[in-house]
Structure formats: C-alpha cells, structure tokens
Input
Amino acid sequence: MSGGSESKYEMDTFSKAVHAGDRKKQKPFVPTTTPIYMSSTYSYDSIATIDRIFGHEEHGPSYVRYENPTNNALEEQITALENGAGALACASGMCALQTALIVSMLDRRRTILAASDLYGATISMLMKIFDPMGYEVRFVNITDLAAVEKAIADVKPGCLLMETVSNPILRVGAMDRIAELCKAAGTALIVDATFSTPLVVRPLELGAAMVVHSLTKYLAGHGDVLGGVVVADAENIEPLRAYSRMVGPVLGPQEAYLTMRGIKSFPVRMERQCANAIAVYEWLAKHPKVERVYFTGDPAHPDAETIARLFPKDRTGAIVSFEIKGAAVKEDVFRFIDALRMVVRGTTLGDVHSLVLYPLIASHRDLSAKQRERMGIRDNLVRLSVGIESPADIIADLQQALEAV
Output
C-alpha cells in the first residue's frame, strides 16, 4: 500500500496496480534538483484540506491548471532573476505575451499603444487577434520620447508594449523614462525582454508592470524547449494568477524542468555570448562585403545614451544584425546562408550554438514590404544570434560564407 492511504482492507491486484507507490507522505529528504511532477491533480488526507487550498487559506497543489510543483519552482527561480512579485510560466512566449496584454487591460481601457519596431509575430497578433477582438491598437516610435509622451496623452492607452531591444534592428527605448510616463497616466507598461534577459536589464526595476520572456531562447538556451513566462509586479501578480486559473495557458512540467536546468547555466552562457557578439560585431564592421551592422554595443548606436544608462558595459546583448553589400535579391542572401558550415540556419535565437535568420522569410515574413521598409528591415538584412563557440570559429565561418556572395 502507498503511504497516502489509511485503509485497513487489502486491495485487489488491479487496484494495487493503479494506486501502489503513489501519494507517499513527505519523507525527511530534499531532492537537490526539482523533480518533474507529471500528476494532473493532487489528493490529500481530508477533503477539508482541499477545501482550504481551493479557498486560498492553505497553500498546496490541487489541479495542474492552478499550479504544479515543478512549474512553481521555475516561477520562483525566474521571479528571483527579475526581482518581481511573482511569475506565470506559459506554453510559449507568444502565449505569455497575449496573457500579459489581456491581464493588463482587465480593469483598464482596452487600448494598446505599441512600439512600431516589434517582432513580426507580435505585430500580427496585435492586428489579427487583438484588433478584431475590439481592442484599439496604435503604434509609436518608441525611441522618440516626445512622440511617446504625446501618444500616451492622446491615446490614453490601457497598456504600452515595447521590447527591451527591438527585433531585428536592435533599437532601445528609454524604458525608465517611458515607465514614468506610463505610471503618471495609469498605463501598464509591458516589456518583452527576450533579447536582453535579466542579466542585461530588469524592466520591473525600472517601473514596468510586467516583463515577458520567451523561455525558448536564452533562458532555456539549448533548443529543446517551447515556453514563455510573465513576471509581474505586486499590483499585477494576483490578476495574472487568477486569469491563469480560469484559462490555463500553463507550461508543461517537463518543459519547466528543462528550463530550470537551462537557467542554471544561463548567466555563464549569456556572458560568453555577449563577449562573442562584441568580437563578431567589430569584425563585421570592417568587412568590405558588409554594408551596415546593427549592434547594441556599437559606440555610434543611435540609442547609445540610453544603452549606456540602462545596460552594463560590455554586456549589451548577443544579437548582431547586418546588411550584406551587393545582395540585391533574396537569392544572394540565400547563397550566404547556405554557405555557412557551423552557424545554424534556424528560426530562433539564444541557443548555445550560433544561429542565422533571414527576417524577410521568417520573423517578419507576414509584414508587407512597405511595413518592413518603415521598420528599416531591408531585403539584404540577416540576424545573427551569437553562440558560445570560439569567436574565431564563428568569424571564420562568416568569412567563408561572405565569399560566396
């Protein structure tokens, strides 16, 4: 019999097969790594205990849509990284972003003011899901503080959405000053911090209401997880959890376990990736076949003052975007990408290995040519997510591939 049953009768073999070994009482040990709790529900010695748990009078897992011990550990881990009040692990980064947007406007005006430079799928979600649902969506140049201030005054948004570092042109808005404007207007500031990670900047400390990460990227870091997370301040964490209990956008426990394992090495990985990105940027900036390089560590970056104020020196991110000189059509870019031998062709970023993406066919594929042009995404632009390999090997691979163009 399992330790969770006080029954005096002997179970039938079939029942033993179902129940034996489960629901053991807590033993006096602590696992050094959080186990994967695959149970969808949890039982207790008395229904009164379950009653207290459902009534929030006593803490404990009850049903996996409400919470899971593995997810709880991950959420606690990421909350600590972001210095937040709590977190919600979600099934994907886009799910986390959608959840944050909806929760931010449960008791606010259903108007979203968004940065004009965003991940293509985020723009599509705003225009193809939120707009038809009755939310008003407006866009603003997030790096023009005067324009942001005017838009907040004119639109009176329920929330303002921005990225710490825009995808893929790598612009950086003044999050601290935008947070002050949002607070004065009663607007919830939501920041997608996937590109920067908590090692570079923590938006909640600057006044954001919620920060979102794609766990798939730097935090998990090994290309084997799909997940997202919302970390909230004290005002927004309970509405976030209440929404989750009703709707259930939650991450699976196996993914939570893998993400926790990845996060244990995340700061070391990210530090290495940032250092490698500096070396790659400096090399690309001098290459005759590179027309222009976009990098947050560039001393001549248009947002250099903001970056210097908000980001640590030499830890500004690990994405380098660049335009290939003479790549007049996408087939020219294809030749460069196909010639790469070590850098991986893939539609993601933040893995331990370097990855290259062509925004025209991937991250910003659903946008019109005119939209991409307004965002500064030219047809010869590629985005490089720098990994932890030897920087000399990354550069050698880029060198031989550029020779193919």
